[in-house]
Amino acid sequence: MIDQHGRTINYLRISVTELCNLRCRYCMPEEGIAKRDHEEMLRAEETIAAARAAVSLGIDKIRITGGEPLVKRGIVKLCREIGEIDGLRELCITTNGTLLSRFAGELKAAGVNRLNISLDTLNPRKYREITRLGSLQDALDGIEAAITAGFEQIKINTVLMGGVNDDEIADFVNLTKDRPLEVRFIELMPIGGGLDFEKAGFISCQEVLDRVPELESMEEVDGVANLYRLPGARGRVGLIRPISCEFCDDCNKIRLTADGMLKPCLHSGEEISIKGKSPQQMREIMQHAIYNKPQRRTALDADNPSEAGRDMNRIGG
Ligand code: SAM
Question: Of all helices (H) and strands (E), which one includes residue 53?
Answer without folding.
Answer: helix 44-56
